[in-house]
Predict the structure of MFS transporter.
Amino acid sequence: MQSTPSTLAGRSLVALAVLNFFLADARDGLGPFLDGFLATRGWSPMTLGLVATLGGVLGMIATPLFGAWVDASRHKRALIILPVLLVTGAALWTLASPSNASVFGGQSATAIVGAVIGPALMGLTLGLVGERRFSDQVARNEFWNHAGNVVSLAAIYAATSYYGEMGVIVMMVLTAAATIVAVLTIDPSKVDHAVARGLAHDDGKPGPSGFSVLVSRKGLILLAVTLMIFHFGNAPIGRLIAQDFSIQLGTPFRTTAITTGVAQLSMIVMAVAAPLLIRRFGLASVFLLALAALPIRGALAGTFSSFSWIYPVQILDGVGAGLLGIATPIAAERILSGTGRFNVGLAAVMTVQGIGASLSNVVAGWLTDIGGYGLAYWVHGAVSILAFVVFCTAHRLIAPERSDDDGDPLNAVNAPS
């Protein structure tokens, strides 16, 4: 049966918050620090782009398979624990010996096993709270995720200042252990696995729909295309900033901690604001705000080269990527409600999104080699304008309204007088 509010007041939702807090650091291994770390050891932007592209392609292939696995599995906790162990091991290998084998091999393994964590976490969340509370809970998850990132970045900044790379190693082991404890604290009996796959109600067919439902839902396809274009523009900018200023300042871990920390603080604000925006203006308003932020971000990054300008640039990253991180699973759940294919559908969207992010890394590396970082910022920021246009033309399909939404600004504009 659907979980009731009274059953959600205990340890499982507290554990879910703790899980998101520590998972922020445990799911991505070296994450944003990888580029700065390797750039100071002579790796070129083009080579780093190839590393990111290889990982992206492998993750893209694995994601829909893992999404289907999450839909069918009743062991969603294990689908978070095992990847965390493998990702942490791969990151420690890269730190200990940053060779071609450890970097390409470790990042490939991280991309493949890490692809299951997102769908598993979303399935676990939906199974705990149900569809009506899913929107607010996704925002809470993102709040704790970004809060965990900020604390982790501050801790890594301090640890590397006093203990160097050994401080990073200790932090990674501690956060992985805390993540596993949090997962094990979630009561598996509180997870409704039918609800977790999008079967809180059905559309008149017994059991889950066939996989053909994924291509028959135009909104899901358009959502994926919009995100593919957006992430083609957005994905490399943070990496390039980390490379650029790590080389300039010679402090890869501390520099990346500052640049990433600013974006994460902005994302915390967005996580608080998103439920209010959705209730007041509708889900479409959140997409509009997020998609509009990236062209401005690219223009600022491409125009100003002083380190002080990373603050508005990274705040805009928090607005764009932060809001889309909340809006995307909510839109997918609405589009696929009643089909029983939520996790695989969300995974399919993430796969198409990954195409854009993966291809962008090689393009960004090439642009940087021929015209410097500024050219790459301008081009990738400008590309994202197309994502805004696609969404505006199909917003009713991409971000369908629900009865608890109070409005849709585009509908209001398009309504006859």
